[in-house]
Structures are given as structure tokens and as C-alpha cells.
């Protein structure tokens, strides 16, 4: 392996994921698959080029899953980046599978989780996975209460076998985080959170106090990009894009926020990373703080 290049977006700072340290703006690979995160992309060569450019720009944290595609995203990551540079942390998710109709289905038994870990290892070309997030599927659309003890226990066993370094959680409640931490160390929580979707404020602050990373998915709104007159006005005043302002707000919100904005555009990738250098004046931050999903 060769070392990662200097990080032009290092002004965002860094945070720990267990034994790994990552810059606070990474890259989410979901959009490398086809429409609806299903099937191949229109231009596989462009996807490969984007990943290579991300690494050259200093990205040291890629978030993925073998159920993106399925399998497509991990295969593209391997094609573009294997053998991986020292210092690159690849985080993946298990707990779901894709139906033939592109639906998202639970895959939560111990046998299914074990098979998914092995699929991720094979498709990424790795001997051990840096971080594996268990994606709760008690409700596809958001966190729902219910025990995740069997699933976390299954991942903890794979961790003891040396196939996983660290365990994280996704789409979970505070109670589920507490339950999982009684079984094994949890290094990150990946839930829906952004400038206007803040139902996890209390959990985010709790995890910050416990020095556990919070990795918001859909930090820019996901399939429906964030839109707000206030956001656009602040961006114009600062000479930035609305998405850069939304990322800068997250970086300011809490030091344990680790961002994984996704894109299939090289221009957007560069813009997202440049958000690390954007400082929000207090007055602008207060206006953004006042935004809600309503």
C-alpha cells in the first residue's frame, strides 16, 4: 500500500472510528450504482474516475454497502482503488438485501449477516472490514424500537473471528445504542440527520459526550436535495453553494459529526470537500439554526 496524499479538506478536522482516524468529510458511495441504487451506473468508467479523484483529493473515508447495486458499488470501489492506500478507511453496512423489484428487504439472521460480511470482504478484496454498521430494518423508513441483540451478537462473533475490526449501527434509537454497547464497543451511529431533519438532536449530543461518531446519512437531503430560501440566501452572501453551507453547518453543529456526502459528479465532489474551508458567521449560523423541516 502507498500513503494517502495530503488532505486539502483537512480544515474539517478529524475524528476517531475506533482505532481508525478519518477526516470529517469523506465520501458516500451509494450514488455510484444505477438509478434507485439498483443495477450498474450509466458510465462505470466515470464512477471509477470519481473514486480515484476522491483519493487524490485526500478522502480517507468511504462509506459503502454490498446491497448498493447490489454488489455493484463494492465492485467499482475495488476496481478503482485496490490495492488500497494506507490510511483509507472503508465502512460498510449489513442487515438488508435487495429484491428483484429493487425493494429493500430485511436480512437480519445470523447466517444472513455472516454471508453479507463475506460478500463485502470478497467484493472489496479485503481480509478484514474496518467498520461494519448493522442497519436496523425494524422499519425501512426510520428507527423503530425493538431488540437488536441477536444481530449485534452475531457481528460481535465475527469481530472475535477477526473479520471485522469495529461495529457500528444505522437507523437506530438511543435505547438500541445502549443495548448494543452492552454487547460490544460501538464506534459510530449512522442515522438520518441534516440541516432541516434534526429529530436525532438528543442522540447526537449524547454520543458526542461519549466520544462516539455520528455519521449522518442524507446530509444534503438524499434523493430530494435540501431547498430553503434561507439556505440559498446565506450561500449567496458567503459566495458558496447551498450544499457547501449545509455541510459547513453540520461541521459546526458538533465535533463528532463525520460527513459522507455522496455524488456521481466530480464538480460536486470538489465542492463538497471545499466546504471544509467555509466558516459560518454567527449571525448566519443562527438563521440556519432556526430552520426546521416544516
Q: What would you say this structure looks like, in words?
A:
There is one protein chain. By secondary structure, the protein is α/β, with parallel strands linked by helices. It has one domain (10-289): NADP-dependent oxidoreductase domain (TIM Barrel, Alpha-Beta Barrel), CATH 3.20.20.100. The protein has 10 helices and 11 strands. Strands 3-4-5-8-9-10-11 form a 7-stranded parallel sheet, with helices on one face. Helix 1 (44-56) crosses helix 2 and helix 7 packs across helix 8 (242-253). The longest helix is centred in the middle third of the chain and has 15 residues, at 110-124. The radius of gyration is 18 Å and the shape is globular. It starts with 13 loop residues before the first strand and ends in a 5-residue tail after the last helix. The model has no long low-confidence stretch (mean pLDDT 94).
Report a brief summary of the structure.
By secondary structure, the chain is of the alpha/beta class.
End-to-end Cα distance: 48 Å
Q: Do you know the CATH architecture?
A: Alpha-Beta Barrel
Give the mean pLDDT: 94
> Helix coverage percent of residues?
25-40%
Q: Tell me the radius of gyration.
A: 18 Å
Largest sheet: 7 strands, parallel
* CATH class descriptor name: Alpha Beta
The CATH homologous superfamily corresponds to NADP-dependent oxidoreductase domain
Structural domain tally:
1
Order of helices and strands: EEEHEHEEEHEHEHEHEHHHH
**Could you list the spans in which at least 5 consecutive residues all have pLDDT below 50?**
none
SS class: alpha/beta
Envelope shape = globular
Beta content: 15-25%
The strand count comes to: 11
According to CATH, the fold-level topology is TIM Barrel
Task: Give the strand line-up of the largest sheet.
Answer: 3-4-5-8-9-10-11
Number of helices: 10
Amino acid at each position: 500500500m502507498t500513503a494517502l496524499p495530503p488532505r486539502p479538506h483537512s480544515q474539517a478536522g478529524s475524528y476517531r472510528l475506533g482505532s481508525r482516524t478519518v477526516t470529517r468529510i469523506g465520501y458516500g458511495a451509494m450514488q455510484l450504482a444505477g438509478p434507485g441504487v439498483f443495477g450498474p451506473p450509466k458510465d462505470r468508467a466515470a464512477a471509477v474516475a470519481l473514486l480515484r479523484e476522491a483519493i487524490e483529493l485526500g478522502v480517507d473515508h468511504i462509506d459503502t454497502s454490498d446491497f448498493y447495486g447490489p454488489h455493484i458499488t463494492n465492485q467499482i470501489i475495488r476496481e478503482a482503488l485496490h490495492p488500497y492506500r494506507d490510511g483509507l478507511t472503508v465502512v460498510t453496512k449489513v442487515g438488508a438485501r435487495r429484491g428483484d423489484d429493487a425493494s429493500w428487504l430485511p436480512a437480519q439472521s445470523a447466517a444472513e449477516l455472516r454471508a453479507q460480511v463475506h460478500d463485502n470482504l470478497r467484493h472489496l478484496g479485503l481480509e478484514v472490514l474496518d467498520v461494519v454498521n448493522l442497519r436496523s430494518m425494524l422499519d425501512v423508513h426510520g428507527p423503530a424500537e425493538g431488540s437488536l441483540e441477536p444481530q449485534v451478537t452475531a457481528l460481535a462473533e465475527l469481530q472475535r473471528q477477526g473479520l471485522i475490526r469495529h461495529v457500528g449501527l444505522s437507523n437506530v434509537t438511543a435505547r438500541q445504542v445502549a443495548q448494543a454497547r452492552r454487547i460490544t464497543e460501538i464506534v459510530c451511529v449512522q442515522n438520518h440527520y441534516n440541516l432541516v431533519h434534526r429529530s436525532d438532536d438528543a442522540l447526537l449530543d449524547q454520543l458526542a459526550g461519549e466520544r462516539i461518531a455520528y455519521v449522518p446519512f442524507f446530509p444534503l437531503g438524499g434523493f430530494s436535495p435540501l431547498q430553503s430560501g434561507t439556505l440559498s440566501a446565506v450561500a449567496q452572501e458567503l459566495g458558496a453553494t447551498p450544499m457547501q453551507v449545509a455541510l459547513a453547518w453540520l461541521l459546526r453543529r458538533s465535533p463528532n459529526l463525520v460527513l459522507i456526502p455522496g455524488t456521481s459528479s466530480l464538480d460536486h465532489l470538489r465542492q463538497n470537500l471545499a466546504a471544509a474551508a467555509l466558516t459560518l458567521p454567527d449571525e448566519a449560523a443562527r438563521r440556519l439554526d432556526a430552520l426546521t423541516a416544516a
